[in-house]
Amino acid sequence: MAFFSKETQKAATQQHSMWMYKERIQWPNLLGDLYFPTFCPFKDDPMPGLVILPDDSGISPCREEAYAKFFVQHGIATVLVDPFTPKGIRSCHQDLTLLSMRELAQAACAAYGLLSLRSDVNGVGVLGIGRGGLAAINLSTAQMPGVPNFTGRFAFAIALSPAGYIQLNKPEPTGCPILILNAENDEIAQAKCIMHYARRIKAVNPKTSIVTQTLKGAHHAWEQEGEPTMDPEIICYPKTIYYLNENGTYTDSQQEHALLPQEAVECMAQEIVRGGHFGGGDAGLFEDVCLRMETFILKHRASVARNTDVLHMFTRHDMLDDLLLTMAKCQNLDEIYHLVCTTFGNMVGTALVRIWIVEPPKGACSTCSFQADCLDRTNCLHLVASDGYSIVKELEWSGINGHHAHLPFRKHKVGVIAATCT
What we know:
The protein has helices at residues 6-19, 64-73, 101-116, 131-138, 191-204, 261-270, 283-306, 319-327, 333-345, 412-420; strands at residues 20-27, 30-37, 47-53, 77-81, 121-129, 157-160, 166-168, 178-183, 210-215, 229-236, 242-244, 250-251, 258-259, 273-278, 352-359, 380-390, 395-396, 406-407. The chain contains ten helices and 18 strands. The strands form four sheets. An eight-stranded mixed sheet has the order 1-2-4-3-5-6-8-9, sandwiched between helices. Strands 7-11-12-13 form a four-stranded mixed sheet. Strands 15, 16, 17 and 18 form a four-stranded antiparallel sheet that branches. It is of the alpha/beta class. The longest helix has 24 residues, at 283-306.
């Protein structure tokens, strides 16, 4: 499964042509390669989609391309973003100003749009490496400055050796699950900053699943085989954290000074340290990382496949449009009820969302907890969807057959609201 040597890569290319096709894609804000399976191992279900954001050192056959080939071989439609060619460069690891985080995020959103238009793809995630990993984490939130009309639709996010020096000042996590893989001996993207970011995200939305794992003995760019290589010119990401505000300005770690983008770049430039080891991996490590990511994706695929927008919250004015478009894809009323509840239930600060409908009891009286309070059994309230989470008891409130499954009109708070519309 290692695609590193020329002989192995040549053989792999011949093998891949039998079970996938590769197409160069050029869209507004997007240049990249689409890797698409010729078969789907998920029976009648749509396949997951994946957007790959490359490392600053460029697109490598043994890293980005190898990951794309692995995932497409396992039935995951993949877009490998190429942000370098439109700028006439092959990498930016020696000058990070050549490619901005905003441009990476815009390309990822365009790739999301490309995959989501396909009826055979449901649930698009993002995988980023280095600064691409940081972009992936930011794209798991509801809003990202500089990326208009995008409201956190990614179904999952994976970050490999992510940078952590630029963080959203007020992240609004959607509940999108996040996997972070750090290298134990990474001198270029040290784990301290990104672990701090993970804790901040978790504090805002405790329901967010964030899995962090450390690869023992590994260096940055562990996908390159052989002994670790020392590059005296490679840039190590800053250790100081800069917080990106909603208006596009930055705040330093002490939260004392607001900086314009150019001022923030100048501050970061003063902290630049060059020199670090990279590589040193082998085929076994590469396979281990691939299987960890695949396990993560498949673990969350069940909820994603039911309805990809269930995991996301919408906080801007396009929320209603997005919700209505997704409702149009639902096959029955139960799916619509579940979608509406979960969409609003995943919003930060929301404890519980429930939907009751008015119907005749139809035999429910015998199991109703409020029989004694019900004077008119012509119609009553029936709970059809629920979504919530108790941060005190750490319990999910998604059941519809409990104490409040049926409620009489004009009794208790919900019954009074239903009867009076106030």
